[in-house]
Design a protein that fits this description.
By secondary structure, the chain is an all-alpha fold. Helices cover 64% and strands 0% of the residues. The chain has 13 helices and no strands. It is elongated, with a radius of gyration of 25 Å.
Length: 270
């Protein structure tokens, strides 16, 4: 799983205050006691918070290099410096999730959410974790919570995940709704486009299926999955020229793929 860390803003809410005297004065007036005259910045962090942040950034680097043990040690030190560093719990949860340490991942996801309940990245990742670990109905609740955040930057990803988890529940109508919404947010979302195309293909609605694969091909999404699905659609629609052209692309780009092997044996209905 690709994880883009969102460093929580440390800006305090409030307005700039100015002390105004009742009569004009040529000299600068002193600020009122307790008045806020500027927003908080990084320099307002305590030394412990700065240490925690540095350790967190090191942990992310090691995680990206798949050096899990080193990353976990850096996170331990980050949380020793700043026990309220929600992002550290979130990253640790993802590492444990990758390692298959389900209980530890769950505990850390929940710690991150307790510290930052409005962080949509946390609730989205936790929803996907729940879906992958047999708690599918719970996952939908967290996806819906995520989607209520007006500042969330990745609604298409979360909508597509909600669709996949709805399919696990056997709720095809909900899945299609989520996939359509994901596609509306991002027409280049390959997963949402493929999922919609598959649903239409399974119903024998080949023209509608072709619409979604066509959009992906126009966006230069030439994965083996998209090409093979497109070939099957053209085969069903009887367009042998389009089928042959797509098969050439599949052979050229992915000669050793399962999809090309399926095409070679004519497994259009598998």
């Amino acid at each position: 799983m690709t994880y883009v860390l969102k460093i929580a803003a440390m800006l305090s809410a409030g307005l700039m205050a100015a002390a105004l005297s009742g009569c004009a004065s040529k000299g600068a007036s002193a600020p009122l006691a307790g008045a806020q005259t500027e927003l908080a910045t990084t320099s307002d962090q305590t030394s412990a918070q700065r240490r925690g942040q540095i350790r967190l950034e090191l942990a992310i680097g090691y995680y990206e290099q798949r050096q899990m043990a080193v990353a976990l040690d850096e996170l331990k030190q980050a949380l020793q410096a700043d026990p309220n560093l929600a992002d550290a719990y979130s990253v640790r949860a993802l590492i444990y999730m990758d390692m298959g340490e389900t209980k530890l991942a769950d505990d850390n996801f929940l710690s991150a959410i307790r510290l930052a309940p409005n962080n949509a990245d946390f609730t989205s990742n936790y929803g996907w974790f729940l879906c992958q670990n047999g708690r599918v109905q719970e996952s939908i609740t967290y996806f819906e919570t995520t989607l209520k955040s007006p500042s969330y930057q990745y609604p298409s990803k979360t909508l597509n995940n909600a669709g996949l988890c709805s399919l696990k529940l056997g709720n095809e109508a909900a899945a299609e709704k989520y996939f359509r919404q994901a596609f509306q947010f991002d027409p280049n979302n390959a997963s949402a486009g493929v999922n919609l195309a598959k649903m239409h293909y399974g119903r024998g609605q080949y023209e509608q299926a072709r619409f979604y694969t066509g959009r992906l091909l126009k966006a230069d999404v030439f994965s083996a999955e998209v090409l093979w699905l497109s070939i099957k659609i053209e085969h069903k629609m009887g367009d042998r020229a389009a089928e042959s052209s797509l098969a050439t692309q599949l052979r050229r780009r992915y000669p050793g793929s399962q999809e090309f092997a399926a095409y070679q044996r004519g497994a259009f209905d598998e």
